[in-house]
Amino acid sequence: MDYLILVLTQIRAIIIILHMITMIAGILMIITIAMILTIIMTAMTLTIIMIATILTIIMTAMILTIITIAMTLTIITIAMTLTIIMTAMTLTIIMIATILTIIMTAMILTIIMIAMILLIITITMTHTIITIAMTHMIRMIIGSINT
């Protein structure tokens, strides 16, 4: 009977040892699962951070592109405005030149008209002087014939 109790005690000790080993293995398995989940969560967090970084870079690039487009449009608008101003200035200069040409033409025509009037006056005066001289000559001839 003592042998049976000894065997049963040994079996009980083996069961307790196996139970302990199973518990330790379970604890190690839980720790392993927790570590694997931590690694997966870390990888997911890093992936989310990488995606956020990539999206931030894309957004920055888009914002810079929009700023560049806005600056280009501003430069084009300034160039167009300057072109319009230059065209207006050129047209103004052409108009001023045309007006000055008209004024100069009018002045030249006025000078020609004044010269023609003076020429007519000169011709008239010369004609009058010639007529007076001829009349005087005729009187002198008639006077010399009478005497």
Task: Give an overview of the whole structure.
It is rod-shaped and about 215 Å long. The protein contains 1 helix and no strands. The longest helix is centred in the middle third of the chain and has 145 residues, at about 1-145. The N and C termini lie far apart (about 215 Å). The protein has one helix spanning about 1-145. It is mainly alpha-helical and about 150 residues long. Keywords: Membrane, Transmembrane, Transmembrane helix.
Structural topology:
Elements: H1 2-146
Transmembrane segments: 12-40, 46-71, 78-100, 106-130
Keywords: Membrane, Transmembrane, Transmembrane helix
Structural class: mainly alpha
**Helix coverage percent:** over 70%
The Cα radius of gyration reads 62 Å
Average predicted confidence as pLDDT: 94
Apparent shape: rod-shaped
Number of helices: 1
Helix and strand element order: H
The major beta sheet can be summarized as: none
The number of strands is 0
Cα(first) to Cα(last) distance is 214 Å
Strand portion, in percent?
under 5%
Indicate the low-confidence ranges by residue numbers: none
Transmembrane segments: 12-40, 46-71, 78-100, 106-130
Keywords: Membrane, Transmembrane, Transmembrane helix
